[in-house]
TrEMBL record:
A Pfam family matched in the record: zf-ChsH2
Origin species: Streptomyces mutabilis
UniProt-recorded name of the protein: ChsH2 rubredoxin-like zinc ribbon domain-containing protein
Domain ChsH2 rubredoxin-like zinc ribbon span(s) in chain numbering: 23-56
InterPro entries tied to this protein: ChsH2_Znr (IPR022002), NA-bd_OB-fold (IPR012340), Thioester_dehydratase-like (IPR052513)
PANTHER family xrefs: BLR3430 PROTEIN
Amino acid sequence: MYHHSGNVAQQTAGSATGVLDHKAPDTEAILFQRCTWCGTAMYHRVLCPVCRGSDLRTERSDGTGTVRHSTVVHRNTPAARNVSLIEMAEGFVLRGRVMGPLIGIHSGDRVRLSTAEDPVRGEPVFQLVDEPYRAWT
């Protein structure tokens, strides 16, 4: 489960602010924060980047998104790998890896969260929803 590793105080039941739900460890999910003042979704933040509010509510993402940018990295790894910025359906952006051919991942490709974990960086791993047929067009 991918979640903010900061210090999270357990609060009383019924209050969703700052509480991480650990009741479903068997499902992979991305936990993100949403500002209760302006509604901005963000990933791994302490303050809202829009209004600077500190009242953030933890929510669970459905795991689908779109590749915003992807690049191939050759350093500090035994083999080349991709690093992508994924814009999630909830509106926040995070860095992760997309499984597939390195040259076959482009901006605009739809992805969903995979159960795999990046062995090098421990970042979320995604898989392509639609197979890329760009070479045929």
